[in-house]
Amino acid sequence: MQVSETADAVVVGGGTVGAWCAYFLRRSGLQRVVLIEKRTLGQGASSRAAGIVRTQGGTPWAVRLGEWSRKFYLSQHEELGTDSGFVQQGYLLPCFTEADVGAARERMAMQNALGLAVRWLEPGQVDVLNPTLAPGRTLGGTYCAQDGYLTPPRNVTAYAVALATSGVQVRERTAFLGLQASGDAVTGVLTSAGPVSTPLVVLTGGPELAEVASLAGIRVPAGGVRHQIAVTEPHRDLAAERVPMVFDLAAGLYWRPEEGGLLFGMSNPDEAPGAAACVDEPYLALMRQRLAELVPVTASLGLRRTWAATIDYTPDHSPIIGPAISDGQVIAGVTIASAGGAGMMWGPAIARATADVALTGTSSVVDVDDLGLDRFDAAGNSRLGTDPIALPFPEHAPQAPGNPAIP
Q1: CATH number, position 15
Q2: What is the pLDDT of residue 398?
Q3: What is the model's pLDDT at position 272?
Q4: What is the pLDDT of residues 57-96, one digit of tens each?
Q5: β 245-248/91-94 pair status
Q6: Which of 39, 190, 237, 313 is the most buried (most CB within 10 A)?
Q7: Shared-domain flag, residues 120 and 245
């Protein structure tokens, strides 16, 4: 990078949200878009995710973001010549109590009103749809045949191709160090390779967003937490046509077909936030026991692969899309974006909406009026209700570092 560089926009973070945002900014007509990534593209959670793409969100925002992203994944090959490997598998959210049934039917009404083809399955229909599930365990559930999953490393490849072919300037192994501003407006960014003059900045960073934002004097109530994924040995009963994706919401456990076996993922709601790269074996064993109760064939299967990644979350389990705020003042030209732990599921839609907000202040993808930083109080509490269809993330984000001065 040159000692003094100029860009129409700078995006910080080379994960799913940041990379697709840079691509959308370039496609919107900006001539010079620079993407800064302190490691390499997709090196964080983007390449270690489970790849779930679920439109059955618990809020209207989640539904719209999930559906936009699903349609984008389906259109990628025509637009880019490559894609993220989306597979339409169908997604079942089973109910185990009467309270589950009431909540599910209420959500389904909201989802259907927004155009989703979600339908109710009676207990017998659940058993027919999912013959690997222990029979007679549910009180029914909601099902959307259009939901599916993608291949996370292939998604990284897809956005790397999109960045290269669209002409985004990618600066890997380049750290973001802070903002430059004149009054209440950004004029550039400071990086480990020198400054870049620009009137537009988008800050992403997944589980490290709070740390990134603090370098710019901005408090973001987002954190990182361990998420674990495992893949069982293959078994003929786990053929893909017999296994819709399933989310056991009460246990925070989900699964989908993978390599002739099951991929299953989980987060421990009692674990303190923080970076984690190793597997929590006792909690994995607890979730394996729950999986075996619901999918008995897995009890006798070994594990082919296990891994852990630090993923991001927000206190209300909703995304953050909106202008940066420091000491109660909006920093003109700076936009914040967080997927709240749903990078594969919402990432492209959040990226598109963030690019729109950076350029025009609004987006047709989703109404962002309630998704900005101004929904949080000084303690990080949100005025929004918590999205009920989410992994059991912590309800409070860790305290962000203190605000440094913006030069």
Answers
A1: 3.50.50.60
A2: 66
A3: 87
A4: 999 999 999 999 999 999 999 999 999 999 999 999 999 9
A5: parallel
A6: 313
A7: yes
Same domain for 202 and 322: yes
- Evaluate whether residue 354 is within a structural domain: yes
At which residue do the structure tokens 């407006």 appear?
185
- H or E element in which residue 53 lies: strand 52-53
Domain span holding position 217? 5-47+153-222+316-375
* pLDDT tens profile 119-168: 999 999 999 999 999 999 999 999 999 999 999 999 999 999 999 999 99
- Tokens 């994944």 identify what position? 73
Last residue of a domain, one of 313, 343, 364: 313
Tokens matching residue 14: 């080379």
The string over 244-271, giving b where at least 16 C-beta atoms fall within 10 Å of a residue's C-beta and e elsewhere, is bbbbbbebbbbbbbbeebbbbbbbbeee
Q: Please tell me the pTM assigned to this model.
A: 0.95
Residue 276 confidence class, pLDDT cut points 50, 70, 90: confident
Q: Closest Cα to residue 279, out of 309, 254, 302?
A: 309
Q: Is residue 82 part of a domain?
A: no
* Tally of domains in the chain: 2
pLDDT value for 405? 40
Query: Which burial class, exposed, middle or buried, applies to 374 when counting CB atoms under 10 A from its CB (0-12, 13-18, 19+)?
Result: middle
Domain assignment of residue 360, yes or no: yes
CATH number at residue 272: 3.30.9.10
Strand (E) or helix (H) holding 292: helix 281-294
Ranges of H-type helices in 98-151: 98-113, 123-129
